């Protein structure tokens, strides 16, 4: 494993042209079979107050919260943000999405839920999002995933 992670060179190929070799001082090589496993080992100590699902190089937080409960997802996002800061990992709030799935008859229910923030920036609230290749919509239909 050490030879996989240490003293490696990398370069970029565009068409038939190669860049000069660089020698990264950290991280796990992308596009390798061992890379995702290394990432999972690396983030294994990340603990949150809501369920956290880790797959390959992706992490997903979710919360089930009824109308009379108080959401704690922001607390988990804050924990994850502090953890990434301690590990010197850049948070990418642009890639993060929030989807609210609710069958409440009150259409204003979504407006009562505060936006989740990463590093002080609102995460985009979306009607549908891709998770491991499956498009999940807030009404839990397959319309966005399957072309009709």
Q: Can you describe this structure?
A:
Helix content is 18%, strand content 19%. By secondary structure, it is α+β, with helices and mostly antiparallel strands. The protein has one domain (33-137). A hairpin with a 2-residue loop joins strand 1 (13-14) and strand 2. The longest helix is centred in the middle third of the chain and has 14 residues, at 73-86. The relative contact order is 0.10. It comes from Ridgeia piscesae. This is Reverse transcriptase domain-containing protein.
Helix/strand-derived class?
alpha+beta
Measured by DSSP, the beta-strand proportion falls in 15-25%
| Largest sheet, spatial ordering of strands | 1-2
**Intertermini distance:** 46 Å
- Low-pLDDT stretches are none
Portion in helices: 10-25%
Q: Helix count, per DSSP? A: 3
Number of domains: 1
What does the average pLDDT come to? 80
Succession of helices and strands: HEEHEEHEEEEEE
Topology diagram in text:
Blueprint: H1 2-5, E1 13-14, E2 17-18, H2 35-42, E3 52-55, E4 58-61, H3 73-86, E5 97-98, E6 117-118, E7 121-122, E8 124-125, E9 128-131, E10 134-137
Parallel strand pairs: 5-8
Antiparallel strand pairs: 1-2, 3-4, 6-7, 9-10
Summarize the structure.
This protein is of the alpha+beta class and 148 residues long.
Give structural attributes.
two-stranded antiparallel sheet; Reverse transcriptase domain-containing protein; alpha+beta; 3 helices
